[in-house]
């Protein structure tokens, strides 16, 4: 049984890759930190709620009130409104800033972890640089939640044998599952198989053209367009 199967059976907690900070600070305080850490401009509660993209204005104002009470956020009245700024003199602010920075780079570090894991695979039959890897679906669009699986497209060079393919798929899925707690679905195919999907106008092609986010190897969107153009040229 794979790690992905284990996660499905146990209902293990997942990471929201669109909002990584929620893995550590699950309340709206984390979203307030994320917004205030990126600016020194005073912001209203409604502006912070809008920029965070999470929760209601009322909920954000309650979260900000708790942070003001704890001293990590300053508040003052400007006209009829209350505006908030981070208290960068607070002794805990460096920790908060480090947390926000870590959350901001979470996707980049996840991508690096996947590539590094593949590079550690001892295989003379395929080079990691020849493998295209891309996120697609809700994670790629930045619309995922803690309940979302992580969808990865893996495009391998021509004539890749199953004995090589299976370990690579397992490495990608297990690395992402271990790093995030999320179930990872790897859609693996060769360039010939990708060409066949293009020829059939498979719905997945439109999906990948819309939101595939390549992080290793040849860019997936460019590859699909190149293969599509080659087919068009062959018919002329």
TrEMBL record:
Origin: domain of life: Bacteria
Q: Which residues form the Polymerase nucleotidyl transferase domain?
A: 130-160
Task: Give GO MF terms, alphabetically.
Answer: nucleotidyltransferase activity
Q: What protein name is recorded for this chain? A: Polymerase nucleotidyl transferase domain-containing protein
SUPFAM superfamilies attached to this UniProt entry: Nucleotidyltransferase (SSF81301)
**InterPro entries from the entry?**
NT_sf, Polymerase_NTP_transf_dom
């Amino acid at each position: 049984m794979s790690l992905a199967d284990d996660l499905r059976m146990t209902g293990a907690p997942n990471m929201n890759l669109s909002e990584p900070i929620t893995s550590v600070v699950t309340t709206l305080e984390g979203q307030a930190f994320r917004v205030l850490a990126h600016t020194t401009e005073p912001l209203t509660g409604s502006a912070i709620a809008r920029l965070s993209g999470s929760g209601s204005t009322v909920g954000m104002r309650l979260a900000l009130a708790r942070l003001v009470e704890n001293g990590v956020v300053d508040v003052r009245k400007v006209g009829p409104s209350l505006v908030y700024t981070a208290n960068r003199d607070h002794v805990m602010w460096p920790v908060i800033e480090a947390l926000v920075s870590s959350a901001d780079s979470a996707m980049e570090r996840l991508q690096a972890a996947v590539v590094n894991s593949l590079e550690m695979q001892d295989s003379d039959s395929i080079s990691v640089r020849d493998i295209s890897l891309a996120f697609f679906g809700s994670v790629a669009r930045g619309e995922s939640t803690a309940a979302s699986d992580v969808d990865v497209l893996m495009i391998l060079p021509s004539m890749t044998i199953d004995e090589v393919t299976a370990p690579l798929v397992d490495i990608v899925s297990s690395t992402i599952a271990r790093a995030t707690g999320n179930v990872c679905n790897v859609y693996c195919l060769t360039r010939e198989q990708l060409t066949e999907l293009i020829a059939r106008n498979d719905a997945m092609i439109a999906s990948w053209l819309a939101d595939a986010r390549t992080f290793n190897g040849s860019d997936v969107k460019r590859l699909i367009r190149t293969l599509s153009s080659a087919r068009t040229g062959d018919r002329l």
